[in-house]
Amino acid sequence: MYVFILLLVLALTASVLGISEFVRHQKRIYSIPIRIHVNGTRGKSSVTRLIGAALNEGGIKTITKVTGTYPRLILEDGTESAIYRKTDANIIEQLGIVKFAAERNVKAIVIECMALEPQYQSITETKMIHATIGVITNVRLDHVDVMGYTLPEIASVLGRTIPKNLHFFTAENQIPEVLKKIAIQQKATMHLSEASTVSDDEMKAFKYIEHKENVALALDICKHIGIERNTALKGMYKANPDAGALNRFRVEAYDKSITFYNGFAANDPQSTLMIWYKLRNEGELNGTKIVLLNTRQDRLDRARQLAEMLGKEIRNGADLLILIGQSTDVVESMSIQNGFEKNKIVNLGWMEASEVFENILLHTNKIATVVAIGNIGGMGNKVVEYFSSRHLSKEIMSHSYG
After folding, report:
1. Contact 326/296 with Cβ under 8 angstroms?
2. Is there a contact between 344 and 319 (Cβ–Cβ < 8 Å)?
């Protein structure tokens, strides 16, 4: 009997404490007048950083939190702090960010959505952030096992963070009508950003090559808030790129020159193809053109999508496809089935990064360009670190995939 009473008391105490903390959180989040919740498939980290930097430049005291390749907390003066996690990523992390921001009496918080599952996306918005401005950068095929196998399905999941009766911004250019329908259901005002509204001259001032879609989206949000365009751009030019930026490394060895592009962060077919076309159109694909695909056993759906894209879109432009990581035999079969010639595939599997480099050298006459895609996990990060350690010059080329 005493044990039962004790357990009942403990349960009631836990419930009271939980309700009390929930009430405190609501007070904290509503103490921040401007709350911008950034969701989408690609470019979340970029847009989050751009908005946060612009708001601070405009005199609005802002805390910015990005998930990106590595989670970061960006303070009002632009300094960054790493967010260390004892366990796997969890949306509860957002509560601590809100508490930190409220204690600093900021006027705005710009926070990247870290939820994937539909129910968690809803909880993050309706219970945690209560955005005054919702953002969906775009809708692409990614995390299909969780969010759905079609663009409309994924849009319906991302749309769960559109705030009711408020404003929603997006640069989505494939199925904006699906997002529009969700916005109408939420009685939210939808704003569609266009890349064409940003000039080439405005883009030249970035210290890395940013995408116009991201800048246009951030500028439209700043205009809505009341920040003058030149002021917003001045702040954006100061923003740091995410660790998932497209980096270029140049390495010379044995009278051979290799240019390595780290595109691992663009791990969906459309973003990957965008990188390939960008490099091709700008004359950056020189010498032996190599696609380096790193795969993970738990991401074979993504590997299947990339194999299909490689076979249909890139096989005629690439001289070689090098496979590294896990389940490469499966990925090789997928690539061949989708039209990539078997004699143009080198299946290395799992090996040291130095051995990958040696194999690239082996298949290089004098000059080679390597475009690394797939996954930064597993072998990916090791290969990037190896090329980074041997680079002659490191240049940040793009920032759009966080």
Report:
1. yes
2. yes
Burial 302-324 (b: 16+ CB within 10 A, else e): bbbbbbbbbbebbbeebebbbbb
Taking alpha carbons only, the member of 284, 267, 368 closest to residue 359 is 368
CA distances from 247 to 121, 178, 208, 239, 353 (A): 31, 34, 10, 16, 17
How far is it, in rounded angstroms, from Cα 39 to Cα 143? 14
Q: Domains, the chain, ranges and CATH?
A: 24-238 (3.40.1190.10), 246-398 (3.90.190.20)
Task: State the pLDDT at residue 18.
Answer: 63
Q: Provide the sign of the torsion angle of the four alpha carbons 110, 82, 212, 112, taken in this order.
A: negative
CB atoms within 10 A of CB 254: 6
Does the structure show a pLDDT above 60 at 401? Answer: no
- Give the torsion sign (CA, 136, 140, 144, 150): positive
Q: Any bridge partners for residue 69, and if so which?
A: none
Q: Give the angle subtended at the CA of 226 by the CAs of 220 and 231, to the nearest 5°.
A: 80
- R_g of the chain, CA atoms, integer Å: 23
Q: What's the first-to-final CA gap in the chain, in angstroms?
A: 55
With tokens 């980096």, the residue in question is 247
Query: Is residue 162 left, alpha or beta, with left meaning phi > 0 and alpha meaning psi from -120 to 50?
Result: beta
Q: 118 is written with which tokens?
A: 């539909």
Neighbours of 7 (CB within 10 A): 10
Q: 269, 309 in Cβ contact below 8 A?
A: yes
- How many angstroms from the chain centroid is the CA of residue 253? 33
Rounded CA separation 199/216 (Å): 10
- What is the token pair recorded at 315? 């096989």
Q: pLDDT of 17-57, one tens digit each? A: 466 778 898 999 999 999 999 999 988 999 999 999 999 99
Closest CA to 274 of 398, 143, 149: 398
Residue 65 CB neighbour total at 10 angstroms: 25
pLDDT, tens digit, for every residue of 241-290?
A: 876 667 789 999 999 999 999 888 776 788 888 889 888 988 899 999 99
